[in-house]
Amino acid sequence: MSIKSFAAKLFAKSVHKKTQKWASNPVEIQQKVFLDLIRQAENTQFGKDHNFSAIKTTQDFAQHVPIRDYEALKPYVDRVVNGEANILWKRKPLYFAKTSGTTSGAKYIPLTKESMPFHIEAARNAILNYIHETGKADFVDGKMIFLQGSPILEEKNGIKLGRLSGIVAHFVPKYLQKNRMPSWETNCIDDWETKVDAIVKETIQEDMAVISGIPSWVQMYFEKLHEKGGKPVGELFKNFNLFIYGGVNYEPYRAKFENLIGRKVDAIELFPASEGFFAYQDSQTEKGMLLLLNSGIFYEFIKSEEFFTQNPKRYTIGEVELDVNYVLIISTNAGLWGYNIGDTIQFTCLKPYRVIVSGRIKHYISAFGEHVIGKEVEHALQEAMENTSIRVNEFTVAPQIAPETGLPYHEWFIEFENDPNNLEEFALTIDRAMRHQNVYYDDLIVGKVLRTLVITKVFKNGFQEYMKSIGKLGGQNKLPRLSNDRKIADLLKRE
Length: 495
Prior knowledge:
single chain, eleven-stranded mixed sheet, four-stranded mixed sheet
């Protein structure tokens, strides 16, 4: 055992002990975080506008601060972007994490002196927790890579801005600098395909031990490695045994990854976003990710089925239940208040509080009242693939409301690595799994409002071409699993 791996185990033990302390007092910890946030923001413009000085309880907070998404918070954010201080949080933010995809164009998510350390610590602690649980630490002596956005930052009114992953690249601790890949120059390449080719060239002869990124883009890296090296990734990198990922569910990709790697490797799931780092997988045997309750974020939860009603109930951590679909609402030390990040979660454990990401509140299909969510389509596809050699590269689902003939249906666009022998039978297997999970969908099939789903095959790299065509190839961009309209579907049909 090297000195570095021995030190990592000692550090891991210390971090695990601290984690257990706050995780065993969830309600008390969240109350402390809540009161601290209110106190620190009391004299900001937002705090004055929402009477923070009168807020003593979470019930007071719910009365004074409505739920907002980015569009509703934008008037305050615009003032911060224009250079004003003490608007959403004390002083000015250190950075803006720039993201896209809203009706108003780019989003500017503030990162403050108080919030930034938690983004770094959470990623670090996820790895340290894995070391403590498994006793595996040899990988700290190997090379590590995170497929991320460019670290080149712009500046707006004295505040630097860029993609979150690019900002985080500036905070890699010194003890990891020698292990980290790719080079700074390669990381700065904007074009994703050019960047991946350069990463392959730099890493193919290295001892890669840890690889991290969004599964769909890591898959592209693995495919290029396999093509250039002529061997499975696990043979090229004999000490590669840990995959760290976030952004999307890994399960639909697992079979394909194991084929590309040539063996199974351990994995750690993360739940990061520009708005905060919310959870990480703390167990290789238990389902879900540990919700980070002591990281400068106060959480509220709204049941998905009630979200679009007037004044839905806002639940705090001590009131949540298992297996209920909740919209995640956050208030943070970056100045986001009653903020809807758009993700839905379910609790898999209450001691400690562990969650899975079940989908997006805006990414669903309910064209006929079926209320289908991301978790359901991912599980149905996974179930259909079990005990088969079928592997899927990517997929998305949309309703077909007005077919040329017959009843409406859900259309599944799937890019297969290897096609099923019987496509219709495979579609029926997925459909049965969907009906088993979702009673509304089952009722619509039984009542002959919908017919069973239809699979449309997408040509190889078709989804990559689609993402490229809309300027979202690579980085932290993700393909929606579900759409309640035909915008993506119609573009895929034209490919």
